[in-house]
Design the sequence.
């Protein structure tokens, strides 16, 4: 009898435990959170840029090389290009303002010392077309026209960069080597009927110098619609650059109106000194290759 009562008690206890367990909430596995990747600016990148270029209206300085006050008189006595400049028959100082569109591409490499926020160093090379071709004119009180043309068709730089990253924001300074395809031309016309060309001179070649500036860059999320190349990051930047390619003397020689050929030094000449310097303000997009 005792064994039967114990068996019944065990059965009742099992039923009670099952009912109690049914009332308890199910155990759910804790959620798994994927670690958010920390942005690093380290890696190679390439991209495009476009913006606005403008010169500093640099003064083109002209001097006469012949006549009284220029040392030994060269040529006939009526050749006095020095006096022509002093009396403003030919402008001693003249400026040609240049401004226009610029667009190109860049490639570079960054290294960040600590991911997230920290110092970033790098190097960048870029090349762009510049729409800087302008001609300016001057007419003396005697009716002698003078024109000056200055142009910069291409500008490239190779620069170092150093900045500080605030996670997705990068603020940086930059500076280095600059080169460009420059062109200069001075034409001095006579006040005779039809204003025939009296003096001309020009120069066209590659010039070198330096560039410096700074900017700010922002890294977009990798799923941005701009990430058409499916790279590890897409960055947007706004940048200012100051460039200086130096100065060049151009000899402006006398022209034979009958043949168009330049005369010898005996007919006199001028020297016009041009300089190429200015500013770029541009925006760009970069595609970064490497770990995020």
Sequence:
């Amino acid at each position: 009898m005792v064994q039967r009562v114990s068996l019944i008690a065990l059965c009742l206890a099992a039923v009670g435990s099952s009912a109690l367990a049914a009332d308890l909430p199910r155990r759910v596995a804790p959620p798994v959170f994927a670690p958010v990747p920390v942005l690093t600016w380290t890696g190679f990148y390439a991209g495009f840029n476009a913006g606005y270029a403008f010169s500093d209206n640099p003064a083109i300085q002209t001097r006469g090389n012949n006549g009284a006050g220029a040392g030994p008189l060269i040529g006939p006595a009526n050749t006095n290009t020095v006096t022509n400049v002093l009396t403003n028959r030919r402008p001693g100082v003249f400026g040609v303002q240049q401004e226009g569109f610029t667009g190109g591409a860049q490639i570079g490499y960054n290294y960040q010392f600590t991911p997230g926020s920290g110092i970033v160093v790098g190097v960048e090379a870029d090349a762009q077309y510049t729409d800087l071709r302008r001609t300016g004119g001057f007419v003396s009180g005697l009716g002698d026209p003078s024109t000056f043309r200055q142009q910069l068709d291409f500008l490239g730089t190779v620069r170092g960069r150093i900045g500080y990253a605030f996670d997705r924001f990068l603020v940086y300074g930059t500076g280095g080597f600059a080169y460009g395809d420059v062109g200069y031309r001075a034409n001095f016309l006579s006040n005779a009927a039809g204003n025939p060309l009296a003096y001309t001179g020009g120069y066209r070649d590659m010039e070198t110098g330096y560039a410096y500036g700074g900017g700010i860059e922002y890294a977009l999320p990798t799923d941005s619609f701009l990430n058409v190349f499916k790279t590890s990051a897409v960055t947007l930047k706004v940048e200012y650059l100051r460039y200086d390619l130096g100065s060049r003397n151009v000899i402006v020689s006398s022209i034979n109106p009958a043949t168009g050929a330049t005369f010898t030094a005996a007919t006199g000449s001028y020297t016009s000194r041009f300089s190429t310097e200015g500013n770029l303000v541009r925006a760009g997009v970069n595609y970064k290759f490497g770990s995020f």
Residues 42-289 form one domain. The beta strands are 43-55, 59-64, 93-95, 99-112, 117-139, 145-166, 169-189, 197-220, 233-254, 269-289. Helices lie at 2-23, 81-86. The chain has two helices and ten strands.
